[in-house]
């Protein structure tokens, strides 16, 4: 098969790494990719948000299967375009991707199918939104309805912070994404991520993970896109996974099908677990980043078979071959991230790193300059390892980091602490 993956981060490097190990994969192209991906697959440069360009590329390169990594092309309807052109596609339609692209829509679906989630109200004007906050009190959560690159959620611990967030959103801080605001009850508990493939009717769990959103050790400092992750997430016990499937995920999949907008792709349920029960925090219509790096490390080549079964409507016959293993990834970021940082610093030591079924350095934001690998983003490398235990995976990942020579980079030293 000729396979095209859309995206350019560590998630797409991990997807490419797993897909390439499967003998069904003859030719692998990633667009736009990055410097690490270019070492193991072809890369191509075209506008992945333009349906005509994507379909033309698929036709010219006889692409048999497209895997869509990030949310932006999903929300832009790329999966609709490739499916309409007859290309087998992994990723939901724009209508189904509203589960990520609109928080108000997700709440509407939860209401319609009875899925447990935080109580909420939605507003298009500041004054009634503020009255609601004054009535409910803090802590309270203020969310821009639309896609805001992970920044549109303010967990306000005091009322003044919530009122200021409402002003900022209606003043256009998040552009059109903040034209509607969802205000939610604050949920206490422990957060974890649950990844489910859906072919529109059937659902299949492909793993659990937890990430670390804060930049500093001990979960301190500003929020980031994720500084590390591990899988499985011990807090998501078999019983809680079953409850989340029965009460949240399956009812959502049925409701989406009932509306004529079936969900095909991976559904990433962000869950809050308290007193042995899960409630939905949010859905994403794609794999998580960096969670995918640990999921792919554990699934390996079978990930392609699972994604094909998902795209083909055969998930009822698919099974995951689980190993009794654990994986952990540490994000190496450029100093200054998530604030301002420099691009272009040289990264040495990559060539000596082990690359096998237990160790992999996925690239998230790198480029080649004058023949050497340089940092080209905030989150730059995802040092990922697999082991018999979480402690073993963690030891291997940090041993790999010791081999790196990149003075302009940093990482958290405590990834996995909650589970260890
Ligand atoms: P979201 O983009 O919806 O995942 O929100 C980003 C983060 O905000 C989540 O990962 C949670 O840590 C936090 N969060 C969102 N909604 C709530 C809520 N209702 N209660 C507590 N924390 C929340
Ligand atoms: N790691 C969080 C996300 O992918 O949204």
Task: Please explain how this structure is put together.
By secondary structure, the protein is an alpha+beta fold. It folds into 4 domains: 89 residues, Rossmann fold, CATH 3.40.50; 55 residues, 2-Layer Sandwich (Dna Ligase, domain 1); 128 residues, ATP-grasp fold, B domain (D-amino Acid Aminotransferase, Chain A, domain 1), CATH 3.30.470.20; 85 residues, Alpha-Beta Complex (Glycinamide Ribonucleotide Synthetase, Chain A, domain 4), CATH 3.90.600.10. It is built from 12 helices and 22 strands. Strands 10, 11, 14, 15, 16, 17, 18, 21 and 22 form a 9-stranded antiparallel beta sheet that branches. Strand 19 and strand 20 form a beta hairpin. Helix 6 packs across helix 9. The model has no long low-confidence stretch (mean pLDDT 96). The structure holds adenosine monophosphate and glycine. The site of glycine has 7 residues, from loops.
């Amino acid at each position: 098969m000729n396979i095209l993956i859309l995206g350019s981060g560590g998630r797409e490097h991990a997807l490419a790494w797993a897909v390439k190990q499967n003998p069904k994969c003859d030719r692998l192209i990633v667009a736009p990719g990055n410097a690490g991906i270019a070492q193991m697959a072809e890369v191509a440069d075209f506008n992945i948000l333009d349906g005509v360009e994507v379909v033309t590329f698929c036709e010219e390169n006889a692409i048999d299967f497209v895997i869509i990594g990030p949310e932006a092309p999903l929300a832009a309807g790329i999966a609709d375009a490739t499916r309409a052109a007859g290309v087998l596609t992994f990723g939901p339609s724009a209508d189904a991707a509203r589960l990520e692209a609109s928080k108000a829509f997700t709440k509407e679906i939860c209401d319609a199918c009875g899925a447990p989630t935080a109580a909420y109200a939605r507003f298009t004007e500041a004054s009634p939104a503020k009255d609601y906050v004054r009535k409910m009190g803090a802590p309270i959560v203020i969310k821009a309805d639309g896609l805001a690159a992970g920044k549109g959620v303010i967990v306000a611990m005091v009322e003044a912070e919530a009122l200021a967030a409402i002003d900022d959103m209606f003043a256009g801080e998040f552009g059109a994404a903040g034209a509607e605001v969802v205000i939610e009850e604050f949920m206490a508990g422990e957060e974890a991520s649950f990844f489910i493939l859906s072919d529109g009717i059937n659902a299949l769990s492909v793993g659990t993970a937890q990430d670390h959103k804060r930049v500093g050790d001990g979960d301190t400092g500003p929020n980031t896109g994720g500084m590390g992750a591990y899988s499985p997430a011990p807090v998501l016990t078999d019983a809680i996974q079953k409850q989340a499937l029965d009460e949240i995920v399956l009812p959502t999949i049925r409701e989406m099908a009932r509306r004529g907008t079936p969900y095909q792709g991976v559904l990433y349920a962000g869950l809050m677990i308290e007193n042995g029960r899960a409630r939905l925090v949010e859905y994403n219509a794609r794999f998580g980043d960096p969670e995918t790096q640990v999921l792919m490390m554990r699934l390996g080549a079978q990930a392609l078979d699972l994604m094909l079964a998902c795209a083909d409507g055969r998930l009822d016959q698919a099974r995951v071959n689980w190993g009794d293993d654990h994986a952990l990834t540490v994000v190496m970021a450029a100093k200054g991230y998530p604030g301002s940082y420099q691009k272009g610093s040289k990264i040495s030591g990559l060539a000596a790193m082990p690359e096998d079924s237990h160790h992999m350095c996925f690239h998230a934001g790198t480029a080649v300059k004058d023949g050497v690998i340089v940092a080209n983003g905030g989150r730059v490398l995802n040092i990922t390892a697999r082991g018999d235990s979480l402690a073993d995976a963690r030891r291997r990942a940090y041993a790999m980091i010791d081999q790196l020579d990149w003075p302009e980079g940093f990482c958290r030293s405590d990834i996995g602490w909650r589970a260890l």
